């Protein structure tokens, strides 16, 4: 009974959002029914959800290349749902690992360099304009350079993600430090704190709420960067599946990969928000916003 009451309360509080989703799904299905088919794959330009979760999902078994657990379709094996889920699991895990490695490296470099720059007001002022220019560099324009610098491999994708996330976190760290109220520093000085103690025990904790907003921004950017890196120049991962699907004009497979990335991005967003709440439990509720 309690569960039904909670479900009713949830539906009432989210009725507008639920209605919007229903309308979007209905509009998508109508567009799928009306749209023409592609030349190569003979799939609708706007694939229906039946096509996405049926034929397109089954076709993902084409990307399973290991000689065990499921047939290899390129060697004459039949398409199976087991092979499709194995292929999606394998390529998704590769994409997620590249994203995690890139975000970790970008966080260490971006936040670390941001704190180093913020240590000196002179250095911070000197770096302000170059940082602003760096933040405006189009990410996609950097992919060919990373292919030459690092190579068309996993290291190149990780480096690209690290560059994309590190640049945002670098600028966010510098801005967060500059926004710390001066009275915090003055109070610490009156208590006899040294410059290092002020930086470690006052400034760094004070920038956490603002940095958490940068973390959520970086998370979305990281998903875009890792898919773009795989899409342009690597032979595995969800981005590479998109490349093959586009080459064959298979809109159903492209839509399926998009839904998977959307679900992963949403799940990671919920997870990071949970970590943020746990990390800021020591702060008053009003200061977390």
Automatic annotation (TrEMBL):
Instruction: Kindly list the residue ranges recorded as spanning the membrane.
Output: 96-119, 131-150, 156-174, 215-234, 254-272
Q: Where in the cell is it found?
A: Cell membrane
Sequence ranges assigned to domain ABC transmembrane type-1 in this UniProt record: 92-272
Cellular component per GO, a single term: plasma membrane
Q: Does the keyword Transmembrane helix apply?
A: yes
Question: What's an example Gene Ontology biological process for this entry?
Answer: transmembrane transport
Its main subcellular localisation, reduced to a broad class, is membrane
Topology of the protein relative to the lipid bilayer: Multi-pass membrane protein
Q: Which UniProt keywords apply?
A: Cell membrane, Membrane, Transmembrane, Transmembrane helix, Transport
- Which InterPro entries does the UniProt entry name for this protein? MetI-like, MetI-like_sf
Give one Pfam family: BPD_transp_1
Q: In terms of domain of life, where is this protein from? A: Bacteria
| Protein family (similarity comment) | Belongs to the binding-protein-dependent transport system permease family.
User: What protein am I looking at?
Assistant: Putative aliphatic sulfonates transport permease protein SsuC
Could you tell me which species this protein originates from? Answer: Roseisalinus antarcticus
Q: Give the source lineage, highest ranks first.
A: Bacteria, Pseudomonadati, Pseudomonadota, Alphaproteobacteria, Rhodobacterales
Coding gene? ssuC_7
């Amino acid at each position: 009974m309690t569960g039904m009451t909670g479900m009713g309360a949830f539906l009432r509080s989210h009725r507008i959002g639920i209605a919007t989703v229903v309308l979007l799904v209905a509009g998508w299905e109508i567009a799928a029914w009306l749209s023409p088919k592609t030349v190569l794959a003979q799939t609708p330009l706007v694939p229906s959800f039946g096509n996405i979760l049926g034929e397109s999902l089954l076709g993902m078994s084409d990307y399973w290349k290991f000689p065990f657990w499921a047939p290899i379709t390129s060697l004459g094996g039949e398409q199976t749902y087991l092979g499709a889920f194995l292929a999606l699991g394998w390529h998704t895990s590769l994409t997620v690992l590249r994203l995690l490695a890139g975000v970790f490296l970008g966080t260490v470099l971006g936040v670390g360099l941001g704190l180093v720059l913020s240590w000196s007001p002179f250095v911070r002022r000197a770096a302000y304009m170059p940082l602003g220019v760096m933040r405006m560099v189009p990410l996609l324009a950097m992919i060919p350079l990373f292919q030459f610098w690092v190579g068309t491999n996993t290291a190149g994708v990780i480096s690209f993600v690290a560059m994309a996330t590190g640049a945002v976190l670098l600028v966010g760290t510098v801005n967060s430090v500059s926004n710390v109220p001066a009275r915090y520093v003055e109070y610490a000085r009156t208590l006899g704190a040294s410059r290092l103690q002020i930086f470690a025990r006052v400034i760094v904790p004070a920038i956490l709420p603002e940095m958490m907003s940068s973390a959520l921004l970086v998370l979305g950017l990281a998903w875009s960067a890792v898919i773009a890196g795989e899409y342009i120049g690597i032979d595995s991962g969800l981005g590479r599946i998109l490349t093959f699907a586009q080459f064959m004009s298979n809109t159903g497979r492209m839509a399926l990969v998009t839904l998977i990335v959307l679900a992963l991005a949403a799940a990671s967003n919920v997870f990071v928000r949970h970590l943020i709440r746990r990390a800021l439990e020591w702060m008053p509720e009003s200061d977390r916003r």
